[in-house]
Amino acid sequence: MFRAGEPTKYTPEAVSDDNSLTSAILLPLGEYGLIGVGGTEEIEFDETVIDVTRTLAEHTTTALERVARTRELREERALTESIFAALPDVFYAFDEHGNFFRWNDRFSQVTGYSDEEIAEMHPAEFFAPDEQATIYDAIAEVFEEDTTVTVEAHFATKGGETIPYEFTGAKLTDDAGESLGLVGIGRDISERKQRQRRFEAVFNNTYQFTGLMEPDGTLIEANDTALEFGGIEADDVMGSKVWEAPWFQHSPAVREEVTDAVERAADGEFVRTEMSIRGADREAFIDFSVRPVTDENGEITLLIPEGRDITELKGRERELRRERDHIRRTEAQADVGGWELDLSTETIYWTDGLRDLYDVSSSFEPSYDESLSWFHPENRETVRDAIDACRTNGTPFDLETRIVTAAGRTRWIRMEGERVEEQDTQKLRGAVRDITERKEREQRLMVFNRVLRHNLRNKLTVVGGYADHLESQLETLAHSDDTAFEEFSVDEALRSVREIRAGSDDLSSISQKVRQFGAITQEVDVTDTVAVSDILTDLGEEYTAAYSSATIDLTVEDVHLRGNAEFLELVVGELVENAIEHNDTATPRVDLTVTADGDDRVQVCVADDGPGIPDMEREVLREGQEGSLLHGSGIGLWTIHWLVTRVGGNVSIADNDPRGTVVTLSIPRADA
């Protein structure tokens, strides 16, 4: 049969003495092997029977597609349900060397081998010697042709029993297309085999709606599945045009589609589409096809209509799309994301929401080490220790920490994690929530509380003291004779008034800065294109005119950054003003430099030759919080930190050489 490539009749008794078949025939199935059909009585194998048998090859292709699509859906839902535990079939996966690296409990239950034994065995060892060649060929076809293959073979159990199974395998690859091995499912077909005593039983046993038609669409056969679905008898539809059958009477459009499919198939085309059909008690969505069957002269003699019920599959697809859309919207609204770490493979998975938080693309897949590198250097070890404790001891964790995103943003997140076990595989799984806004509110409340408690109270105390003193002197003067003028010091009164005025100006300045910060933060997220050179040139001229003793030197590249003009003027102006006002030299010097680096960021450096920013001020920004012993003296540096962070930038402070401070703002370029 393989040499001729044609159907070959043979006598089973000549092959095996105990064979119960009287006559049989072998038909080639291309690359998939062959199919044998026989009976206990003499059968006339005419072309009609042979042609119908050939359709079984199409069944195989359809089954492969069904398994592939079902597998894809299951993989998509791997994070939300434990599918392997509920899977009634045998599931397995092994690498190109035949080493198993995953299987379900059903595999062990069917074969009788323990997990330790399975891990040491080759896939072919689960089959009788006379079937091992078929198994090797199927495995080779999967890897060499990168195709899905289905074979029927007998599981050889540890106890010596053989069980007929249908195995479907496909190549398993990573995101880069590199082969990881073969993944497959084995389904027990014992009952199906028992019913396959005659070819008609095979025809009627299929789960698909199958029939036979004349080339003009006249229905001459329909299997039990199709008839039972429609609640009709064979005599009700045999001899009628297929589009007149009850399955298609609910819609003129469907009838027209069926008519068109028959006409195209009669011209030699294999037609396949999806449509709805009406049954006795429900409507179903089917994968409908019409295949032409030709005789030895190439003439079309029959048409084979088939329908595969994909209602459940379509429902799962809709449900999955709905769930994924719901999750995506929920994550976006709540600024949350999810993650999972497979402890056996060190493979880490991020949801779309988490990718958004990290400012990476929807296709980004990090390694475990890479995922740790995103954490702020000062928090990285804390996170690593928490993950290690969860991995080793199963200790859950709930951390508030910082990350530095791909866009350079420093974000505060709340990260939760716990250890779970699925199909003997341990995983760490958790969620991440963006708490940057909450942290900023806490910081602002902390700073504003300090301003109210410390700065404003001190200023008000000074103002009140001088006011009381002045009031006392004036009251004394009002109730005394003219000689009291000799005791009343005008210079002393003027000094009190000036101190009151200075305190009032300081209070007004602090209030103005707080209001200005509040206004700018409402607009800074509008990331316009800002021409740095024009704004800083004007800013330099403004402060040079205001502080005649100071020297402001500008070295500014023609670059654009993310933000807006008010934001840039406020941030750089605050730095320049502080550098001049807190300078203890007679001729303060400020160097203002703007450069663009190769990382799509703009570096704005403000360097001075003053006494330097106190260590406490720097430590407050590094820690992100103030306390009774650790606090800043104003609101300026906090304002700069908040605003620069809002646009995805960061602030660093270093000593100048030989004296002074260099404050560097690293801000994303407008086109980054």
How would you explain this protein's 3D organization?
With 672 residues, the chain is an alpha+beta fold. It folds into five domains: 8-194, PAS domain (Beta-Lactamase), CATH 3.30.450.20; 206-314, 2-Layer Sandwich (Beta-Lactamase); 335-434, PAS domain (Beta-Lactamase, 2-Layer Sandwich), CATH 3.30.450.20; 436-515; 524-672, Heat Shock Protein 90 (2-Layer Sandwich). The protein contains 22 helices and 25 strands. Strands 5-4-8-7-6 form a five-stranded antiparallel beta sheet, with helices on both faces. Strands 10-9-13-12-11 form a five-stranded antiparallel beta sheet, with helices on both faces. Strands 15-14-18-17-16 form a five-stranded antiparallel beta sheet, with helices on both faces. α16 (436-478) runs antiparallel to α18 (490-523). The chain is elongated, with a radius of gyration of 40 Å. The two termini are 66 Å apart. The relative contact order is 0.05. Mean pLDDT is 80; it is low at 626-633.
At the third CATH level, what is the topology name of the largest domain? Beta-Lactamase
The fourth-level CATH homologous superfamily of the largest domain is PAS domain
Shape: elongated
Overall structural class, as computed from helix and strand content, comes to alpha+beta
Main beta sheet, described? 5 strands, antiparallel
CATH architecture field of the largest domain: 2-Layer Sandwich
Provide the gyration radius in Å: 40 Å
What percentage of the residues does DSSP assign to strands (E)? Answer: 25-35%
User: What strand line-up does the widest sheet have?
Assistant: 5-4-8-7-6
